[in-house]
Amino acid sequence: MHPKNLLFLLLSFISFFVFSQNKPSVRKTYTATKITKAPEIDGILNDKAWMDVPEAKNFVMVEPGDGDPIPPSHDTSVKIVYNDEAVFVAATLKEPHPERVLRQLTQRDNLNQAEFFLMDINTYDDGENQTRFIVTAAGTQADARITGNHEDFSYNLVWRSAVSQDENGWNVEMKIPYSALRFPKKEIQRWGIQLYREITHLNENYVWNYVDKSVGKLSQYNGLLKGIRNIDPPVRLSFYPYTSSELDFYKGKTQYNFSAGMDLKYGINESFTLDLTLVPDFGQTAYDKVELNLGPFEQIYDENRAFFTEGTELFNKGHLFYSRRVGSAPIGFNDAQKELLENEEIVENPDKTNLLNALKISGRTDRGLGIGFFNAVTQKAEAVFRDTLTGNLRRLTTEPLANYNIVVLDQRFNQNSSISLINTNVTRNGNFRDGNVTGFLFDIYNKSNSFNFEGDAKVSNLILPDQDLTGFASDFSIKRTKGNFRYRVSHEFANGTYNINDLGVNRVNNYSNFFGRTSYQIFEPRGIYNEYRIELFGRHRRRYRPNITQKTSVGGNFFAKTRTRFAFGGSFEIDSKSRDFFETRTEDQYVLYQPNGEINAWISSDYRKKFAYDLRVKYQKFNESPQSDLWFKIKPRFRVSKNFNLTYSFEFSKEQNRPSYVTKAEDAIVFGNRDQVSLENSIHANYNFNPKQGLNLSFRNFWATATYANGAYTSLQDHGMLSPYNFIFTNDTNPNTNFNIWNLDLSYRWRFAPGSEAVLLYRNSIFNQDSLSYLNYEESLNNLFEEPIRQNLSLRIVYYIDYNRIRSLFNS
To answer: Where is the secretion signal located (predicted)?
Structure first.
């Protein structure tokens, strides 16, 4: 489909469906009561503030059933009051057998197997964007930003809560200050709310306002909170100053570093917030799960820096923002080796750029318009060369001063639909590459929420010293979103110059793909099943230019969960012959892979038990070829006590006889038959003294070998075929690889005040990569321990300062 025709079709669908929705018809209402004296937040509901206040009651089941009333034995009631500072919530959760309530101690935002009470607040009542506040039966807090069905638990707010237990069950008390919320500056507030209780030991969940799971999203079924009036949004200004001390031991040398900086949050008005980080410190972020990567694409890592994970839902629109680009390796990092002159050596070549500062402004007006602005600046990076004869130093700029920007406009309407415009831009100082990408996105539901029309159109501009490249990509899908039977058809397109990799990630371009899927699922228990889903799909991948087939696939998958919370499932996929244009590392050249079939299965036991496990296995076999792939993973978990939890993971994979790229010779693109074996052991353990103090252990060892069959080298021919080739490698060109990496983190975390914490972290790491692929695991591990170990000890303290509290102290 031509891009112009596709864009016209998208706009036609939007114009037809944009005004054809309405809200869910069934909705409860609760009227909050204003108080003069705030209750003490201790979990004991005997304060005067709770007397003669109406109750939100009559909860109904949302899982596993559909709308069944909560039994009287587990009656749940909630009261909501407010004053000029905050909203207060009291919840009474009855339980005839209090000893059965699961009260596992965890740290913030980790629910694990503790039962909990939840309140969602949508201050704009738009059916989409809301804030979630959770308190577990053990007293742990969790909060998240909810966008549709996505929970962002990196979104942290400062609020208070407490729990208590008695012979009738347990109670929750919450204080949510207005500084933790964004709401319109109006005399009368109308907020969407949902109240939710999970009774883990019964495997039952209940909500206050009924949710029809077969239609739409959970956020569309909020009740209405009325009665809050004449409140003024406070000055939302808070400071998070930090200090960080670090000792690093490596190769007999000790380094000491001290740094200090600050994060700042400022409410520009009642809707928009500025987040700013000055002299950022990311020294205690979790380690990356590095693996042996012999493929044509870069390895993508999770974002572990809080500033780039908290409140970024607007900036992630269209999947154009990969935050690890900010502060990543300089764009000229790999070119430093090529720039070596005769008799020179590399003294220094930084593998990352330093972030100088970053800010983001985001919010949403009372008419549903979301606006986001992101900016970050990274420092210049240089490689340093030394002449081994004269000792003279020479510098090469591998990354200049760089500026990263994102601007987003997101208009929400009719509870569950949106139209968005996003622009990302990277500008580098000097004669380097710049990147600019603009995307238009839509997500539209019809009146009955039975169909969804979703898609985007994106234009990329890559600005190079000698030329500019403009690319285009689009995506369009129609989905049936109501009832037991559902289906989806979609089309994806990108031309050969589409490139968003300066601030985003696209691994492939030059494609025109088609996809179809149909499924059947249940929303109420049937027989032994609480839920199950069956799905069949088909996918056809084509090269845009030249217009040829890359691969056609058909398959299906199955998921089921029993009444006893035992889950299992699996999938299968059958692929035709495939043309791989990327393994060759050469433009418009492809290698041909044979048809293959893949099957995988998994089981997951009941996490409520002290011992539980997950088991997954996958096997892939190619027709008329010895190529195969086996993958296996087992993950047992032990809840030793309510304080101590331990999870172990073992993962193994074995790939045999895969025709793989080796190198480029003068007269050939060389391939070889590769066997690759990998093994990963990891442990995650935590011991929590209480919800505010705990020890955490995280360990990972990943080992992999890649061995190419002797005398089985080939050269790439026309039409993707391979023919024998006499390739003789040297020590420098030996493709065989032995890869081993070890990481261990042990930390003590203490949240000593609301919003404030101290973290003491010890970590060590070892890495080794060589060509000794014939070594077994034990031998490779012995070699690994002969490498120098890096040990690091750091202490980081962050203190939360609220401007309103300081002002009150001075006034008093």
So the answer is: 1-20
What is the pLDDT at residue 304? 84
Give 338's pLDDT tier (boundaries 50, 70, 90). confident
**Neighbour-count burial of 484, counting CB atoms closer than 10 A to its CB (0-12 exposed, 13-18 middle, 19+ buried):** exposed
User: Is residue 60 predicted with pLDDT exceeding 80?
Assistant: yes
Please give the CATH topology (third level) of the domain spanning 32-226. Immunoglobulin-like (2.60.40)
Confidence of residue 221 (pLDDT cuts 50, 70, 90): very high
> pLDDT at position 21, please?
39
What are the sequence ranges of the domains in the chain? Answer: 32-226
Phi, psi of 807 (to 5 degrees): -65, -40
- CB-CB neighbours of 104 under 10 Å: 22
Strands 76-82 and 33-34: parallel
Q: Which two structure tokens, joined as six digits, stand for 89?
A: 């919530």
Beta strands, E only, 148-302: 150-152, 160-166, 169-177, 191-199, 204-207, 223-226, 237-250, 253-267, 272-278
The closest of 734, 684, 674, 677 to 702, measured between CA atoms, is 677
Q: How far apart are CA 500 and CA 318, in angstroms?
A: 11
| Cα distance between residue 539 and residue 320, in whole Å | 24
Other beta carbons within 10 Å of 721: 11
> Which tokens belong to 584?
């060759």
User: DSSP letter at 308?
Assistant: H
CB 468 within 8 A of CB 461: yes
**pLDDT tens string 234-272:** 888 999 999 999 999 999 999 999 999 999 999 998 888
DSSP state of 323: G
pLDDT tens-digit series, residues 122-141: 998 888 778 999 999 999 99
Amino acid at 643: N
Give 255's contacts (C-beta < 8 A, 6+ positions apart). 246, 247, 248
**CB–CB of 452/162 below 8 Å?**
no
From 216-220, 436-440, 665-669, 720-724, the region with the lowest mean pLDDT: 216-220
How far is 796 from 749, CA to CA, in rounded Å?
A: 10
Paired with 413 in beta bridges are: 417
**Would you state the pLDDT for residue 812?**
64
pLDDT, tens digit (0-9, with 9 covering 90-100), for 428-486: 998 889 999 999 999 999 988 899 999 999 999 999 988 999 999 999 999 999 999 99
CB neighbour class for 572 (10 Å; exposed up to 12, middle 13-18, buried from 19)? middle
Alpha helices in 634-726 (DSSP H): none
Residue 759, both tokens: 């973290």
CA gap 447, 450 in Å, rounded: 8
Is 625:575 a contact under the CB 8 Å cutoff? no
This prediction's pTM: 0.90
Structure tokens that stand for 431 in this block? 């004669």
By C-alpha distance, which of 586, 508, 499, 516 is closest to 550? 508
732: which 2 tokens? 């420098």
Rg of the chain (C-alpha set): 29
Q: What is the pLDDT of residue 5?
A: 42
